[in-house]
Amino acid sequence: MKQYEVFELVLNGQPPEGSEALAEVNAVFSLDGQEKEVKGFYDGNGVYKVRFLPEKCGVYSWKVSGAVVDEGTEECVPGDGHGLVRAEKTHFVYEDGSRYIPFGTTIYALVHQEDALVRETMESLKKAPFNKVRHCVFPKSYEFNQNEPPCFAFEKDGDGKWDVNRPNYKFWERLEKAILELADMGIETDLILFHPYDRWGFATMTAEENEIYLRYAIRRLAAFPSVWWSMANEYDICFAKTVEDWARFEEIIKEEDPYGHLLSNHYCMKPYDNSRENITHLSMQNILFYKAPQWIREYKKPLIYDECCYEGDIHLSWGNISAEEMVHRFWCAYCDGAFATHGETFLSDDDVLWWAKGGKLKGKSPEGIAFLREVMESLPGALEPWDEPVWTLYEPDLQDGDAPADLMENPFFKLHASLTEAERDALNLKDSAYCGHYEEKAFIKYYGIQQPGRSCMFLPKNHTYRIELIDTRERKKSVLMNGASGTVWFDMPGKEKMAVFAIATS
Amino acid sequence: MKQYEVFELVLNGQPPEGSEALAEVNAVFSLDGQEKEVKGFYDGNGVYKVRFLPEKCGVYSWKVSGAVVDEGTEECVPGDGHGLVRAEKTHFVYEDGSRYIPFGTTIYALVHQEDALVRETMESLKKAPFNKVRHCVFPKSYEFNQNEPPCFAFEKDGDGKWDVNRPNYKFWERLEKAILELADMGIETDLILFHPYDRWGFATMTAEENEIYLRYAIRRLAAFPSVWWSMANEYDICFAKTVEDWARFEEIIKEEDPYGHLLSNHYCMKPYDNSRENITHLSMQNILFYKAPQWIREYKKPLIYDECCYEGDIHLSWGNISAEEMVHRFWCAYCDGAFATHGETFLSDDDVLWWAKGGKLKGKSPEGIAFLREVMESLPGALEPWDEPVWTLYEPDLQDGDAPADLMENPFFKLHASLTEAERDALNLKDSAYCGHYEEKAFIKYYGIQQPGRSCMFLPKNHTYRIELIDTRERKKSVLMNGASGTVWFDMPGKEKMAVFAIATS
Asked: Using one digit for the tens of pLDDT, what is the confidence trace for A343-354?
């Protein structure tokens, strides 16, 4: 047993008489007087399994009851893993405290492709900058997704209907193999539990069937540290499910998941209620990057733009942006203290589009995202939104970065404070740079489509900073000034897609 | 007297005893039993003038009363002018029915520069694609605007305060000379009557002073066919004026302007109430191009994005976009059936920035705007927003462009219909192409940052069309297909900033 790695007990017994999916296997793992209850599951052929994710080292005693019975002890020693990724304030961190900044990509039907293609996808991921993949339990039926998957999550009953009580063990093993292979590359699985793009009947299962499926899936997968639960891709167009269904799914997941994996619910047009207690982070589909500071502060949770369009050239507007635009959107998100997820949809004679099936990456955005990842990981800590004190721009006598005491007496600021949200949004869309900071140790400003030839930063006066210029297109850094403190002005190249960052040197 | 040209009577008399600005000069021009009352004005040195804009041909009889008295007849014959630009539905047209599509630029303090610079500006405009200039009556005090103007609109009183009752005739002559010189080049003057960027006291005149100034200005200028009244640049930060003041200004303008020139009120953060009857068109400051169809339909008036940032490289975010971005914004606006206004703010050693002072154009966006103008003027009529029937994209069985009868039974469309305005905006920002049409004769679609390798148009089945591809960056057109009808698919180059348009050939 190794800390942060799946520990699996394999026990033989009689096959379940009722539902194979809900076979009753209860286990308790105890360490230092603390008990953790986990559920086991049936894996076919008279085999029951109990999986446990040890998060502490020491000698555990364990006891299994129900359809199979056994007990024992096992010493847990340190391993190489970092444990679950958790939400900490408005960013993410591994259970062991190691840094994790998500740089995701999307391969919805990853495990529903033939082995050779899955193989190719894994090889592509080895060379790519991604450390999270959004993929689905259920296969996908949609444009560019007409192929049949090699296998399905359940067996069929005599009427040809899916029988959720009889899992297809081959499928689950295949899914787990992919999750583990991704994990070996340091890639988290943002596992999509439901989605609407279906021609087989998975999207229209009854509430009872959904519950059986969910309980089984979570009992099998909750011990995998790299798994996140994404309740849906586009929950709001899962028309067979109601708001109450989603709330119920949250509760089922909570009951079955002893570790508290990350949990989100992704939408198409109507955001899910991300203020809900079980929701650990925002999984958004929009390109309103200027709203990130507002949402991060409002929800106090990490924010991932999980769908901000895909690099590609298909006819659908969500799948035909350029590499430069994709990378630009990433910079907008990360510099605001949020995160984004990549996808790729290039027309292809063989109908293999990365976003759905994987294969080879054809686009250029991964190079830009790799550079962004390098820059972000070089920062001393996790970014939060930064409201640079811009009033100094409008109050030329106040060049020292201090807020004037009578700021709100200034009619300009009074007017600004009186704007409706729509008016403020319109202003922010037009004016926004994307600014983040880590305490007083790092400040970053991404200018996006602005191309100033001269700019400024309003830095704390009690530190000095090295200011670096980043050309996000050329992927080059250069030092603009050393020893910067307080309000500093500097020349810039008058080009788009530039960032500056200030790193405290004292 | 020529149709659509200023006719001026010059009459000598005793200088006014009271206000020179409000000197009482009433004139009536009669033709075919129809009378038009116009006010004259005092022009200094015992000279009174009455200006009249004849809009019909024929023999007018006229009669002047008040401070000076005279009468006579004058035959009006056809001239070269086209008359006032008027709002017709959601676009503009000259009084004589000729086409006018505004392609404006911004030179706020045009007439407040030394003669040599004004000269240079006029030379630049000769070579530029612009047919409207936004400029101010009052000089501008702001960053890059620190110079004193050659003259002001009024004389000062003994206390050094502006005396609005004593116009500075030299100033008004200078302003009129500029307006006429612009008009000779086919350029309309969008004359800004008030603005907040002031260090001389014009922004803080009393309501009474404002009224005297306005009445004088309009009596002098209303007969110039090329003048539009822009009540303010950024009315909402004219903090010395209230909403009631602006409503009062509308009434004063209405009283003094016998012709009904175009009238708008431009804002900084809070749009003016553009539903007001006197307001002829929307003068907006934002980059929400995807909102154009909604606003055009809501207000049923033309919409000009009079400030959608400027090409340049200054530190302020509204003044540092690239030429490509500026041209892109123009395409967005025009293809939606709206209009936009250019400006340029490049840092310069001599502090001459086009947006404020004129001079030479340094940017590259005028070339792109010239090309857009050529394309727009080649269309058979004025564009209106076009809602392409996109449901076919989501209903693959309905490839013929017909709306399914049970469209609103489709849960996808039900969901779409239930979105809040903010949710719909978020979707439109992400998904929007910019689409316009002129009847069934022309359809245009601008893909903006989308770069599809394949796309489609849903055209009427009762006509055939020639479809042209436009590369807005390369400024090149090519024919994609002839004889297109109904739903047509075509390959595209998979590049950004492309447009297609379909012109009916039968």
From this structure: 999 999 999 999
